[in-house]
């Protein structure tokens, strides 16, 4: 059955090409986080697909990923049309992926309006998300020159996330704001200063835009680079790949530089980024109502403020822990304070690099 809010030109894209290195050792190059369930029966990509299917229907959902993960995407979403995979030949960052997907969808439907989603999000309740998606589609269908973010007001300030400050909009659209400040993974002092002077929304990566509008704005920002992607879309035999020299660093950079309107609506749904172990802990602790979260086979006694994720064939036995993340895969066990991962996320990157080094200590 088609969802009530679906329209003939409404599409959704799931971006699922990342390696999820911040969720190592459970997330690896061969089996990244989008194909993990984190305690749920469905993988993260499967959960995202179901949520978007309730908004646009399954036939209008596309998956943006790499050739390396094409098989994993088809396995995770049974029945997905292989023609709805948009495969990057060589990942060149999020703006390149956005342009590639917009070009591919616009080629099928020049009137397409697109809603995007990342796989590393927890969104509840579904009804609130559906309502926000419908509002975003309707606004962009009427004002095709703008890109729109489904934002959520943060319940706490997290320096690993991106934020957008807003002001009142000139358009007489209830609940619509204009973006005026953009801050990506700020330090604590900068974030607290901005929060004291602006109304902030978390950047959920749920954008809504007309495909042709994004293509036009991106072409103005880096014409040579994005022309290569257009040629790739129209004749994939013409070039084997494309490089990112001169391309924007962030998906909104081209809109900001061009002075294009960027709208924000209050999504009204609960949202958690689940891209790091501290954020996974916060999401699961809120969901379960317990300060000790244990996923997988094993037993715990008396631990608190602790996350245990067992993705191995072993039993994990813990007791009396405080403030730790314990994550086990079949070949690695990570034990590290959650607070250290929050304060110094580069620690995990160093451990990951050293894991494969000979004679490691």
TrEMBL record:
Keywords: Nucleotidyltransferase, Transferase. It holds the Pfam family NTP_transferase. It comes from the Bacteria. One of its GO terms (molecular function) is nucleotidyltransferase activity. Residues 12-286 form the Nucleotidyl transferase domain. InterPro entries: Mannose-6P_isomerase_type2 (IPR051161), NTP_transferase_dom (IPR005835), Nucleotide-diphossugar_trans (IPR029044). This is Mannose-1-phosphate guanylyltransferase. It comes from Nostocoides vanveenii.
